[in-house]
Every structure is written in structure tokens, then in C-alpha cells.
Design goal:
single chain, 81 residues, mainly beta, six-stranded antiparallel beta sheet, 1 helix, 6 strands, globular
């Protein structure tokens, strides 16, 4: 099962999302394609990053595309209130 693992969710946004929140995913390899996803898990502990505090987030694909492969670059737009 393919999933997207983000490592750049910052501390300002992490407090505004939770598992179950919807996301839109785009991929460098699939131009003009946007796939729906759902936040599955957010790390409880931050990861060190240059420029700030970030949290790893796992997003599952609601409708996977058969052209996707592990390791492809993905961008996630997560709905926040």
C-alpha cells in the first residue's frame, strides 16, 4: 500500500490537524493530477530540521494511481481550519 510520508509539517500547522483530515496530493511525475488522501498519523515527537521544528506525517492515498512508485516526490496540501 503506497503512502506519502511528509517531514516538513511545522509546529504552527501540526496543532491544527489530526488523523482523518483530508489532503490533496500532487506528484512531480504526474503532471496535472491531484489525488485525494487522508492523514493517518502524525508523529508525537518533532524532528530536527533546518529553519524550525517539524513533524513527520503519514498520508494514505484514497484513490491510488497505478503509475505511482515508492520514492516519488510528492506534495501534500492538508486542509486546516
Amino acid at each position: 500500500e503506497l503512502r506519502v510520508e511528509t517531514t516538513d509539517l511545522d509546529e504552527l500547522d501540526v496543532a491544527r490537524i489530526e488523523p482523518g483530515i483530508k489532503a490533496e496530493l500532487t506528484f512531480d511525475a504526474l503532471t496535472n493530477v491531484t489525488l485525494p488522501g487522508t492523514v493517518e498519523r502524525i508523529a508525537l515527537k518533532s524532528s530536527p530540521a533546518s529553519g524550525g521544528t517539524t513533524y513527520e506525517t503519514i498520508i494514505s492515498l484514497d484513490e491510488p494511481d497505478e503509475r505511482l512508485r515508492w520514492g516519488m516526490t510528492a506534495f501534500a496540501d492538508i486542509e486546516t481550519e
